Amino acid sequence: MRSVSIETGVTKHAEGSCLIRMGDTHVLCTATIEDRVPPFIKGSGLGWVTAEYGMLPRSTTSRMRREAAVGKQGGRTVEIQRLIGRSLRAGVDRVAMGERQITIDCDVIQADGGTRCASITGGWVALKLAVKKLIKAREIVTDPLISPVAAVSCGIYAGQPVLDLDYPEDSEAGVDGNFVLRGDGQMIELQMSAEGSVFSRAQMGQLLDLAEKGVAELVEAQMKAVA
User: Fold this and answer.
1) CATH superfamily, region 4-226
2) CA 75 to chain centre
3) For 36, which of 60, 98, 122, 174 is 20 to 30 Å away at the CA?
């Protein structure tokens, strides 16, 4: 694992916020509580967790245009924010949450590989801090968060299984994947693909073992951050 740090309370107005640093990947995550839900679950008594994701223009080596200036989100952005949303929902008891929505905003300040994984890991911290405010205000009775949710990348680089790829490793990896797990060991999503190479079932098992080790370390960092 690259060095990991999670700084909480970094914005004044959000109900929950953190700045997560995984190596040279830095992501600002904020949580916003709203007393509304999407129309398709209105009246169901269920809560909803959703996410939005974006990269700042100079988060990479050259300036990228803001998607707002282009007029639409790119396919990669849409795919990542859907991944963040469904990953975080997998750790939530939506009945206990009550009929409200919590939106997690993930803004990549600096990118060096693994931005979606850092967003999920930091997004859970922001979500937990927002939920703690709801409990303190007695707006909900029990904690709706079943288990921490964290994510890490793994890949085959130079023929070796590697945990938490940075950008140079990710760009040259023969196989790379993103692993989203709960703190209790349950799997949420595995994204693996061969990049000019192939992988065996045994290698997939090696990467999953690495991911479980990495997620355990991330969950430890999460729990320290929200304590």
Assistant:
1) GHMP Kinase, N-terminal domain (3.30.230.70)
2) 18
3) 122
